[in-house]
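Below is our example:

___
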Amino acid sequence: MDLTEQLPVATPLVAGLLRLPATARARLTALSGVLAEFCERRELRLTKVLMEDPRVAPDRAIPDLIATRPVLYGIVLPSLAHLGTAELARERQQQLADVGTRLLLVRGAGAGSRADAPGRRIGRLTR
């Protein structure tokens, strides 16, 4: 009988989302690094980082991430603020929860936890 530790296991795939002005290149680089480090510590593979500019209407980032849901373990964010304004963030959390997409937070309320539904914490991830 094989031990599970000896069997090949696929690394869970996640995508990152950053809500930053397009001109904030240094911040984009820094936060992309934070997401990558978070994923590395948790043995997740960061497949892409999408950026939304808050000065323009919300784009297709969340619908595009939802469309790739079958291959994604979840979406990683530096904090819930990267989902948008409070109203937009609640709406997006609900959209993600409705399709069962995990939301992983690096910091802030619920950091290191899955926030699968608005205002709901689901267990703590180990560091």
Remarks:
- The domain at 11-120 is CATH 3.40.50.1390 (Rossmann fold).
- The chain has three helices and six strands.
